[in-house]
Amino acid sequence: MFFALVRNELMKLHSKRQTRYFYLFLIIVLLGAGFVFRFGAPETAARIDQMDFASNMYAGLSLFVTVFALAIGAQSVSEEYRDGTIKQLLIRPSSRTSILLSKFVAVLLVLLAADALIVAGGLLIGTGLFGIQADTPPALVLIKTAVYDLPRMVFLTSLSFFLGVALRGIGLALSVSLIAYFVGGLVSMMVSKYRWSKLLIFRHTDLAVYDPDPLVSGGGMPPAGFTLGLSLTVIAAYIALLLGLSMLVFAKRDVR
Amino acid sequence: MPTEETVVRLENVSKTIGGAEIIRNLSFSVKRGEIYGFLGPNGSGKTTTIRMMVGLISMTKGTITIAGHDIRKERGKAMAHVGAIVENPELYGYMSGRKNLLHFARMSPTPVSAERMAEVVRLVDLEHAIDKKVRTYSLGMKQRLGIAQALLHHPSILILDEPTNGLDPAGIRQLRDYLRLLARTERLAIIVSSHLLSEIELMCDRVLIIQEGRLVDERLVHPGGESEDRRLPVRFEVSDGARAAVLLQAFAGVLIEGNQVTVELGREEIPELVTVLTEGGLRLYQIRTLAPSLEDTFLELTKGGGV
């Protein structure tokens, strides 16, 4: 039953032009950038390898993927309210909680698919156009980087999702979560000297620093007393809190 | 299946919003195979009641059972029996009619077969447009697709909130015919809410009149057949009232005002009386039963007790 709900949400997401165009956009940028470097700038192309290309593409495109996930997260519930379809959705036997959860899961699946697309696409196109050299790091380095980024993306998506449920509008939900995305790191730097900041999610979202491989961690070190387990727990707690609040608001509300 | 099976029962249902009691101790029940008109002026609580029945709005007090399941305790089981359109037929415009149906079919706890899907599409006459995006549909087509999604899972009750909103006369006519057909063929109970009396009269077997959140009357819309022995005042317009008074001495309850003669009669007595009058040499211009029309009742009920 829950699986059917998720399939419904995925069908709706993929019936919209925006989702199809977004995948298309990612593919075009990957291919376009590859061909421009390879044939438009041969000197640069001679210097770079598969990993240079793929990790640069990832760095740039993961920003778009995050913003897209925030947008569809904020949209998922608020759009059903705007179109009135929420009524058709809620007069079914499925509980409101499972409907809400199916929406969240569907948004995460799209996020994962888009993320996998830019990693795999970057690596494939990079290999095809620039090749692998003797000193090219293994593809695992990029995959690890992408995986370390995921918990933060999921957290931001759940924030945007919650705001979409609570405010029933896309505008504010998306802008607040975007601001959180961009200033989160800055805020955590400013308050890092206080002990309570250990509970602040943005001090935990950079998970790559825990990796022993300097190619992945970028030479960064975790703050004193921070462990991967602690960071993951804090992120999970924030996500659970936001989802719990979303369910509470969604299940209680009269639909008029 | 018994014909008199009760599908929906409301018992002392109340709803308070911000201190105001919108629905007050509302109780009624709905049986299979009948079309119920849910009639009331705007703001009388029709939509609120319907939304409580389908679980969109919580109740403050009372119980609603659908097919024997309390909607608060066994919401899933109760809702499995409901097909509804709440307000406009809101569907996903960016998907085809078929995908919209698939979406709602997947939400049914009992699987909906491909044959059922095709059958419903045929029933609402949308075969030619089912693969087009719903965005391109006319309002009447959307309405029909709305009915199709509500019927997919063989519900026991179909609830339509103001279904004729925005439909043209031809569309209303078509909807009416569908509903009649459905009540007969699928043995559905149908509740149709409206603030338009004329619509209810044309569409429904029974009417529930609601005002200020209270049920004020329940009656048959066309009290033919079963009430043949009921005595109703019948008014005759004759050529000579005085002469009629003489001729009708044998009858009880005769009232004569000028050339208007009013008599309490059973249905079978009407031709009898006509014979007496015409054989007595009177000319008859008009015969009319003075049964209070639904309209009279509705206006009387909803104007009288107002605040």
Low-confidence stretches of chain A: none
Please tell me the overall pLDDT of chain B.
85
* Helix proportion of chain A: over 70%
CATH architecture of the largest domain in chain B: 3-Layer(aba) Sandwich
> Radius of gyration of chain B from the CA trace?
24 Å
Low-confidence runs of chain B (pLDDT<50, min 5 residues)? Answer: none
CATH class of the largest domain in chain B: Alpha Beta
Major β-sheet annotation of chain A: none
Largest sheet of chain B: 6 strands, mixed
Helix content of chain B: 25-40%
Folded structure, characterized:
The complex is a heterodimer of chains A (256) and B (307). Chain A has 256 residues and is an all-alpha fold. Chain A has one domain (2-252). Chain A contains 10 helices and no strands. Chain A has helices at 2-15, 17-40, 42-47, 50-83, 85-90, 96-130, 140-167, 170-190, 214-217, 228-252. The longest helix of chain A has 35 residues, at 96-130. The mean pLDDT of chain A is 92. By secondary structure, chain B is of the alpha/beta class. Chain B has 2 domains: 6-224, 3-Layer(aba) Sandwich (Rossmann fold); 226-289, Alpha-Beta Plaits (2-Layer Sandwich). Chain B has 10 helices and 14 strands. In chain B, the strands form 3 sheets. Chain B has a 6-stranded mixed sheet, sandwiched between helices. Chain B has a 4-stranded antiparallel sheet with strand order 2-1-4-5. A 4-stranded antiparallel sheet of chain B has the order 12-13-11-14, covered by helices on one side. The mean pLDDT of chain B is 85.
Task: Write a concise synopsis of the structure shown.
Chain A is an all-alpha fold and 256 residues long. Chain A has one domain (2-252).
Core attributes:
heterodimer, A: 256 residues, B: 307 residues, Rossmann fold, Alpha-Beta Plaits, 2 domains, 6-stranded mixed β-sheet, 4-stranded antiparallel β-sheet
Set down the secondary structure blueprint.
The complex is a heterodimer of chains A (256) and B (307).
Chain A: H1 2-15, H2 17-40, H3 42-47, H4 50-83, H5 85-90, H6 96-130, H7 140-167, H8 170-190, H9 214-217, H10 228-252
Helix pairs in contact in A: 1-6, 2-4, 2-6, 4-6, 4-7, 4-8, 6-7, 6-10, 7-8, 7-10
Chain B: E1 6-17, E2 20-31, E3 35-39, H1 46-53, E4 61-66, E5 69-70, H2 75-79, E6 82-85, H3 97-106, H4 114-123, H5 139-151, E7 157-161, H6 169-185, E8 189-194, H7 197-203, E9 206-211, E10 214-220, E11 232-238, H8 241-247, E12 254-257, E13 260-265, H9 269-279, E14 284-289, H10 294-304
Parallel strand pairs in B: 3-8, 3-9, 6-7, 7-8
Antiparallel strand pairs in B: 1-2, 1-4, 4-5, 9-10, 11-13, 11-14, 12-13
Helix pairs in contact in B: 3-5
